[in-house]
Amino acid sequence: MAAAIAPLFPISIASLSLGRASHHDLAEKIHAASAAGFQGVELFYEDIELHAKQYNDSSFEESILKSAKDFKDLCDECNLKVLVLQPFMNYDGLLDPLEHAQQIVKIKLWFKIAKAAGTDLILVPSNFFSEGTTGDDDQIVEDLLEIVELGEKESPQVRFAYEAISWGAHKNTWQQSWKIVKKANHPNLGLCLDTFHIVARTWADVTRESGVRPNASKLLAADLKECAAEVPVDKVFLVQLSDAERLLKPLDAAHEWYNPDFPPNMIWSRNTRVFPYETDRNAYLPIEKIVRSWVYDWGYRGWMSYEVYHRDLFDPSPSIPQDFAERGMKSWEIMVQRLDLDNIGSEMRQS
User: Fold this and answer.
1) Which uninterrupted H or E stretch holds 243?
2) I want to staple 23 with a disulfide (CB 3.0 to 4.6 A). Which of 69, 81, 215, 316 is the partner?
3) Please, which contacts does 230-235 make with residues 24 or more away whose CB atoms are closer than 8 Å?
4) C-alpha–C-alpha distance, residues 276 and 269, integer Å
């Protein structure tokens, strides 16, 4: 399948979005992404963690680095760029010094993994544990600067994209994550913007019958205007795209997926993310509006990446990687056409 041509917007897909590692191995997923026409992949840690088990005669570190090298070799074979290693989870705001120290040991291994895999970018989502953490801005800035400064000493230097996930305990909007990144003021620390997380906090409400917040359009328009005005476009290191299913009933205590231990947005995300324009799968979020604003009002130019979580990714059927890769590319072809991305020039254009 030929990729939709958009020279200023190469397209990537997350390795997890091609099948869960427990059911689908690296080779079939990487080959599926390449065959569908993707130009890059995001490396999810679980993919190399499970693949590393085959190296049972090696130490944990040796096996995980061999696995990361296998991932890179597959991507090189298929002419795919490894866009990012993720997710370095639940790091920011830890109150226990021992837990923090353990994470610092872990990030030093992740530097080696990133290098073996051929990427210089690590994604750090906001902490979603409220217990044992703080939302204090100064503390979170200090935590992020600690790993950023360690990464700066690597060769090549390691960059970090900080992402406010929509169920984050303390930071769950891009405005909050931007405040942290701006205050840290380091060239190797930027933002990750994900359409799902933005929409989940400004437009959608999965606990409502309609699935939409009151005044949703106005809220989203104001949010997009603020982003274009406040965030320098070069401080965004990663852009992720996904839509999600409109549920048939609210995700409340009566819903079959409800779990009091998990926030509704987390449950919704883990089960129902789909590709933009998949209305046949109940996709309903205004993803095109967001991307249009980013491209035309804000002036974003660069990689875009599909990050889709879905219950079907656990399906052991061997067709899953190809199915998801082809669905993703079909979605991208529609977006390229609808937003005229293949013809956009390097100069700023206003919609």
Assistant:
1) strand 243-244
2) 316
3) 230/175, 230/178, 231/174, 231/178, 231/191, 231/298, 233/298, 233/299, 233/300, 233/301, 234/190, 235/178, 235/181, 235/182, 235/190, 235/191
4) 14
From residue 198, alpha-carbon distances to 223, 243, 342 in Å are 9, 11, 25
What's the pTM value of the predicted model, to 2 decimals?
0.95
CB 40 within 8 A of CB 12: yes
Amino acid found at 321? P
The 10s digit of each residue's pLDDT in 282-310 is 999 999 999 999 999 999 999 999 999 99
DSSP 8-state class, residue 226 = H
Residue 304 DSSP class = E
CB 123 within 8 A of CB 85: yes
Beta-bridge mates of residue 161: 123, 190
Amino acid at 152: E
Which of 343, 228, 208 lies closest to 291 in space, CA to CA? Answer: 228
Both tokens of residue 40? 């890059």
Strands 243-244 and 273-274: antiparallel
Tell me the pLDDT tens digit for each residue of 123-152: 999 999 999 999 999 999 999 999 999 999
- The two three-digit tokens of residue 106, written as one number: 């872990």
Q: Parallel, antiparallel, or unpaired for β 159-163 and 121-125?
A: parallel
In the block, which residue shows the tokens 């409109």?
246
Among 122, 119, 60, which residue's Cα sits nearest to residue 91? 122
Asked if residues 133 and 93 have their Cβ atoms less than 8 Å apart, the reply is yes
Written as one letter, the residue type at 344 is I
Please tell me what DSSP assigns to residue 191: E
Q: d(Cα 245, Cα 239) in Å, to the nearest integer?
A: 20
